[in-house]
Design a protein that fits this description.
It is a single chain. The protein is mainly α. It has a single domain, classed as Orthogonal Bundle (Arc Repressor Mutant, subunit A). It is about 65% helix and about 10% strand. It contains six helices and three strands. Strands 1-3-2 form a three-stranded antiparallel β-sheet. It is globular, with a radius of gyration of 18 Å.
């Protein structure tokens, strides 16, 4: 079987194209696609580090390095949860909020562009197919 005959080949190629485009755009604003994604997932009331890890799918060593970098850039700050001292919450600084808005605007404009070139039916079919592939992937057990 040739790589271009597999589903995962196209998933990888498309995601790489999207990530590269986001990185290209994000670099114009002094951030990366991964940083923008992290910023979008940090909420006004703070977000627990464990929640960020679950949302981003980033390994803990990479997450620690990324959060340290974000802190050094002045995008975030950390506070111990007053209700649970073992838990640390991440909050955005004013600068982090500005960059989060930039990231949201980039994502919104890119998705508006995609949606203007893909019919509603195509988008819904793609979404359903991707959900199905994701579920099949989770259920797959090699023989």
């Amino acid at each position: 079987m040739k790589p271009e005959e597999t589903v995962d080949y196209f998933l990888k190629i498309v995601w790489q194209s999207v990530a590269n485009k986001y990185n290209q755009i994000a670099s114009e604003y002094g951030i990366t696609q991964a940083l923008g994604y992290m910023l979008i997932n940090i909420h006004e009331e703070g977000t627990a580090v464990s929640q960020i890890a679950a949302l981003s799918g980033v390994k803990s060593t990479s997450l620690s390095r990324m959060l340290k970098n974000m802190e050094e850039l002045g995008l975030i700050y950390r506070e111990a949860d007053p209700l649970d001292k073992r838990s640390v919450k991440i909050f955005l600084t004013d600068f982090g909020k500005e960059k989060r808005q930039v990231a949201k605007d980039v994502v919104r404009r890119f998705n508006e562009y995609l949606n203007s070139h893909v019919t509603e039916t195509e988008r819904l079919n793609l979404t359903e197919s991707l959900k199905k592939i994701n579920q099949l992937t989770l259920n797959y057990k090699p023989e």
